[in-house]
Structure formats: structure tokens, C-alpha cells
Specification:
- The chain has one domain: Rossmann fold, CATH 3.40.50.150.
- The protein has 7 helices and 7 strands; from the N terminus they run αααβαβαβαβαβββ.
- It has helices spanning 4-18, 31-35, 45-55, 71-79, 92-96, 108-111, 133-142; strands spanning 61-65, 84-89, 103-105, 117-123, 143-151, 170-177, 185-192.
Amino acid sequence: MIDLLTRLLKFKTFTRKYYVPPDITKAKDSKDYYSKYLADGEIYDNNEKLTDEILSYHPKTVLEFGAGVGKNLLLLKQKNPGLRILGIDISKLNVKTALVNCIKLGDENLLKSYKNLDIVFTCSVLDHIENIDEIIIIFKEISKVIILMETNSYDTNFYYKHDYESYGFKKVDYQYKSIRGDGAIYEMWKNEHG
């Protein structure tokens, strides 16, 4: 396996040369926007915290919904080489430039094809979707544990607020501020149901 640093350097070179981001004013709940979006390949403290939390469950199989270019999955695989990692992302560009080769192109409809996962997780995905009811139901059907890293600090043209507690989630004592400088506070939520 190519090491993390090599993959990130290749990714950064590609994004600097070729990527033109879509119009962010069309970002809220737009599958068209996100189908053209290229996720950030940088590893931040929150990615380390998220992957450490996932690995604390000693899972055999994990799925990231909205995997982007797979930086969380790559971190997980580097920390636990025996772990089976899976990902789904709506962006062809993310799948094409992925840091790992386990990401499938798709949306919530593809989730239904998975079964018996130890953990399903997201990082800044559900906060861009207005109605998450069906997605949460599917998460619960296909996994034992759900871990979310989502902003819930305010409702703007870029984020939707969700009452994760009403879905049975408990807040973890961890949060971080968005790197975008928009004031969004991200929190970790867990649902252990299986």
C-alpha cells in the first residue's frame, strides 16, 4: 500500500492543477452540487479523533457514507490494516481521485445493498441534507453502531440543523470549529443499537 503522505501529495498536485470548485451558493441540499464536488484530502485533528473513536469498537467492517476522497478510510486502514473499509460518495470526481479504492459512486439508495456492518459513519454529510429520516433508518438496519461528526450549530444556506437525540444519538464530549471560518461547530454523535 502506498503510504499516506505519498497519496496526499499526489492528491494535492491534482487538485491544484485541475479542480475548479462548483458554486458554493448552490450547496445546500443539492445533489447536483455535490456530484461535482471534490472533497478536501487534508488530514486534521478531527479526522484522527473520529478514526480513533471508530477503532475503539474493534470493528471488522466499516462504511463511510459521503466518503469524499477517502481520507478517513485511509487513516482507518493505516491504523488497522486488517479492517474491511467501504465507502459511498455521490461525486464522480471524489471516486475517481480517491486515496483508497473501496469507494463506490452512489447515494442513500446504494446503502440498502449493505448488510451486517459493524459501524457506519459520516463526517460533514448529514448537515447538508434537509431530511435525513430515511438515511438514519437504513444506517440502523445495516449496522450495529453509527458515528456522526456533524455540525448542528445553526441553520444557514450551507447547513441544516438536525435533532440527533430524537434519532437516539448521544453526544460525545468532543467538538471542533469548522476550517471554513464560517463559525460552524462540529460535534460527534453515537448510536449503539446492535
